[in-house]
Amino acid sequence: MRKIQMVDLLGQYDKVQKKIDSKILEVVKSAAYINGPEVHSFQKELENYLNVKHVIPCANGTDALQIAMMGLGLKPGDEVITADFTFAATVEVIALLGLTPVLVDVEKDTFNIDIESLKKAITPKTKAIVPVHLFGQCANMEAVLEVAKTHNLFVIEDTAQAIGADYTFKNGSKKKAGTIGNVGTTSFFPSKNLGCYGDGGAIFTNNDDLAHTLRGIVNHGMYKRYYHDVVGVNSRLDSIQAAILRIKLPLLNSYCDARSKAAEYYTKAFSTTKNITTPVISNFTTHVFHQYTIQVKNVDRNALHQHLLDNGIPNAIYYPVPLHSQKAYMDVRYKEEDFKVTNELINTVLSLPMHTELDSEQLNFITSTVLNFINK
Ligand SMILES: *Cc1c(COP(=O)(O)O)cnc(C)c1O
């Protein structure tokens, strides 16, 4: 059996090695390392894939969130609501810009922002909502959009974990994750579903004016060379990363399929035990399984975590501490009873190996090792 990995980047590279190697060499020889034709072509190809008017490539997914918030003109003191259960980047940029993060609880089934908690958190200072499409499926965007419309708020979708997921509206129309709100952001960090071989990110919007503003902000606030109209940042996707992403983008749907197949295997194997809750997929979204995260009951989760490690099965606890309890983001306004779900999830969740290269021998070993422990 091949050694089991949490994410098998090398196994995925092996299958496209020739193309990638020759392309990287081509870019090196072109000497267009920044903002070259590869970046422009990738931008167009991603716009086409997502069916969105504008993609603005940038340096990473954290920058993408920050730049999106700058582009919307959010000002210090504005409140931005996001989920308590996400990677810290989401809340970090809110705080960094002097905005006020307001964390709210998530749904137990889907790990995504809870709409009732969202509604309760709105104040006259609220300016934006950041739904995170956690682990690969979309938050309840139709409900988020309704709340946003009622209170005149911006919606910034953090799509770092769900690129490629499809959202279906009640009227049957479909949109790609990240193209539903005012602006969407993603990350091309190597372990993400569409990963490059370094750092990368992008911002999506259908709004022409916002796209223009964002293109200036990523480039030092310049709209004309050496004329700085607004305070910007330096956030670029480099040409080598764009070239790699151009090879991987056409494979993204097949990558999603491979992840789904592995997820189906897990879910079927675990259907025999009541002590494992397998991922619940909302009916309005597909799931691209950035993570396959189970919730365990009547079982010592930390002991299971260690047991799997002892058997050579990597696994992880995403996330071990809710953001409202992190030193950097604690706030006297938060009450523990408002975070019933995240306070429970941190003790019950476990993410199993999930990537495009898992084979049935590995999946069988993982599921039987989990079940042997649970049923012992
Ligand atoms: C990975 C991730 C980010 C940040 O992306 P980077 O490219 O690492 O900066 C932001 N939000 C979520 C939900 C993520 O998973």
TrEMBL record:
User: From which domain of life does this come?
Assistant: Bacteria
Biological classification of the source: Bacteria, Pseudomonadati, Bacteroidota, Flavobacteriia, Flavobacteriales
Q: Which species?
A: Lutibacter profundi
A UniProt-annotated Pfam family: DegT_DnrJ_EryC1
Keyword Ribosomal protein listed: no
Tell me which Gene3D superfamilies the record gives: Aspartate Aminotransferase, domain 1, Type I PLP-dependent aspartate aminotransferase-like (Major domain)
- The protein's name: Transcriptional regulator
Q: Which family does it belong to?
A: Belongs to the DegT/DnrJ/EryC1 family.
Q: Does the keyword Translocase apply?
A: no
**GO terms, biological process:** polysaccharide biosynthetic process
Question: What are the transmembrane regions?
Answer: none
Its keywords, alphabetically, are:
Pyridoxal phosphate
